[in-house]
Amino acid sequence: MIIIIILLFSGCISAAEVFKCSTTPITKDTGLTGVLPAGSTSQVKIPAKTNCTYSFEIPKGFALKVETTTDYVVSPGDMVLFDNFFISPPAINEVDYAMNSKVTYQIISVTGNVTFIAKYTYLDLSNYQQVIKPTGTPFNTSLEPNKYFTVKASNANDQVNLQYGTLHDSTNSHSPFEVFLFDGNDIFNSNYIGRVPQAFGRHYEYYSTSDTLTLINLYGGPSDSLFLGNDASVVENMDTYGVYVMDSNSDYNGWMVLKQEIDILPDAWYTVICNGCPSFSIEAMMFDTQCAYSNEKGYVEIQGMTPTQRLPPMLHYQYSTNNNDSFPQLIPSPIATFHLHNASTNFIFRSGAQQKDFVTAPGTSRSVSSPQLWNPDATPAFDYTFSDLSKAYNFSIDLQTIQLENDQDVLSIEVGSVNGLTTLDKKYTKTKLENENISGIGSYLKLKYSGTKTSKVILNFEMIDPLNPAGTTTLPSYITSVPTRATRVSTVSVQSTVVTSKNSQIVVTTTPTVATTTPTVATTTPTVATTTPTVVRTTPLITTTPVTTSTITTRQSPDTTKLMSSTSSNHPTSSPTTVSSMQRFYTNNSFTSRDNNKRMLFFASNQYLHLFPVDTNVMIVTVEV
Ligand SMILES: *[C@@H]1O[C@H](CO)[C@@H](O)[C@H](O)[C@H]1NC(C)=O
Ligand SMILES: *[C@@H]1O[C@H](CO)[C@@H](O)[C@H](O)[C@H]1NC(C)=O
Ligand SMILES: *[C@@H]1O[C@H](CO)[C@@H](O)[C@H](O)[C@H]1NC(C)=O
Ligand SMILES: *[C@@H]1O[C@H](CO)[C@@H](O)[C@H](O)[C@H]1NC(C)=O
Ligand SMILES: *[C@@H]1O[C@H](CO)[C@@H](O)[C@H](O)[C@H]1NC(C)=O
Ligand SMILES: *[C@@H]1O[C@H](CO)[C@@H](O)[C@H](O)[C@H]1NC(C)=O
Ligand SMILES: *[C@@H]1O[C@H](CO)[C@@H](O)[C@H](O)[C@H]1NC(C)=O
Ligand SMILES: *[C@@H]1O[C@H](CO)[C@@H](O)[C@H](O)[C@H]1NC(C)=O
């Protein structure tokens, strides 16, 4: 009596007497459902020294579903295998599928301690729907229930190269194992190749023999991986190609490297997919200085989307030991392909919402282009502002390629400062330009474009600190403290004289020595054009602290003097000729004098008054401090 109770408690094992291994192939015709061992209703204990292989035949258009419950200890050699993969113990109703024409279910019991039961079902897939995915379009390896996916090359003579990438912060992803791969255009007639990792082998990729391959995932679990099919004709020429996946949750700090077979393969391509992000940015890209192939000829180029779209490179970074000035750089596309030549890099990517506003930074450069050059499906428009309202930069802009083909295409470029002075205000329509340079000083740069797919905008700009244009000195000589010292803005050859009057005003007279100093600004202010070019030489105004020892040439246009004089009555100064409008400026604000459309940008910090003349015309301004 006691013995019987113990048996019942020891795991609901069938009293099923002797285990018999049936080697007769199981087919759909012998029943759409069944149980192993045949006739059992609960787990069966398998005697020691059993090596039993059941075999199934699966007709085209069907899948076999097997639900296993098993318990055993792996180490002594006991195992349960389906489709040659372990079913790890303990398993309770673990579901597996197979689509091979022949598949085995194997039990090896060395110890006599293996117990198992498996229920199987033949699934008819004839009502599954086909989804066509063109090459160059990533998709989730979970696929979708009741659907199968056929990847089709761009051209009927081409083939498909299939790869997948797993989210960078995912520890493991089972889903590729759960996807069955067919070489051909459906699951009914095509050749079954295997589960994806089997089909890939150690090359981590698969080439179809025709222009299509087909995938089905019957498991339907969540996944951390994305498939990407590319046209084989593009990828087969690449020494190395890989797919990286990131999402909007975290930065991606990783490496892109060249591969070594017998020798280093000099070129590698990697497609980065920011899953669920409209764009991403390169926060840093540091070239590996340790490897033998690192040299000044090495570079990284970046093009939009996958290799299949065959887009031209949009960014080029030559090997450098210090290129942080180029970053962060926005990639206005969720997908981009990096090409490494004789270089390896450590990168930091950050996923971005659709970004509009960016910060400025001294001595740095950025590249901006119409988004459809990165992604043909993107809206050909952008609206970016680069700013730090407490700092002024010389935004030096290289219009690399501007091709505005259609009437509705408009590119506007504006540089200005908080309180309203616009030093650069350009609007381009129906224009073709190559490598034209423009610049403006201000605390912000606004770049706005709205165009059509056939048009093209590529521009690069540098944010030059006007106080330190070479990016070297920390205290340029022409910065002087307010209000007692003279100011000389040497970069544009302006001489200034500062006079302090009783009520602590500074009178600043500036004039450029070269009439053509800033021709780019002149075109934006038609009112300036009427200014007489005649140079009137005068002696410096009331001079208490001359700026430089060199000869000061003050050039003054008559209309300037006249207009400024008109506002003089309210603002006593020490010289009748230098009366001008008075402007209050605030710490850390930029503001402007708009007298007679003369342009001068004042930028004030706690200690310094920075004067950046941005016009070729004389101006006299009184500033209250
Ligand atoms: C089990 O039998 C199969 C053939 O039926 C054989 O290939 C395999 O090596 C055997 N395994 C063990 C552990 O004996
Ligand atoms: C089988 O399992 C029993 C009970 O857990 C254990 O005592 C025995 O050592 C196992 N046999 C082998 C060969 O591992
Ligand atoms: C794939 O889809 C599943 C289910 O819809 C989702 O849980 C998972 O996050 C997706 N994975 C990726 C990498 O997008
Ligand atoms: C790239 O590196 C290889 C091997 O070091 C060298 O033979 C080749 O000339 C390099 N290519 C360029 C463009 O520097
Ligand atoms: C460049 O930026 C990265 C990331 O912020 C940083 O780790 C690296 O040290 C910087 N390199 C230099 C030369 O400043
Ligand atoms: C701004 O930078 C450009 C390019 O370096 C230069 O030509 C221009 O003179 C600078 N403008 C001023 C006002 O410094
Ligand atoms: C425009 O500026 C770029 C970068 O500063 C420079 O390389 C190029 O020569 C300039 N182009 C012209 C036409 O001045
Ligand atoms: C002006 O800038 C200085 C230095 O950056 C800062 O310490 C100060 O708080 C700023 N003043 C205002 C009013 O923002």
UniProtKB/TrEMBL annotation:
ATP-binding recorded as keyword: no
Positions in coiled-coil regions: none
InterPro entries: CUB-like_dom
Keywords assigned by UniProt, alphabetized: Signal
Compositionally biased region (Low complexity): 565-580
Comp. bias intervals (Polar residues): 555-564
Domain CUB-like: 18-125
Region of interest called Disordered, as start-end residue ranges on this chain: 551-580
Signal peptide location: 1-15
Superkingdom of source: Eukaryota
Protein's name according to its UniProt entry: CUB-like domain-containing protein
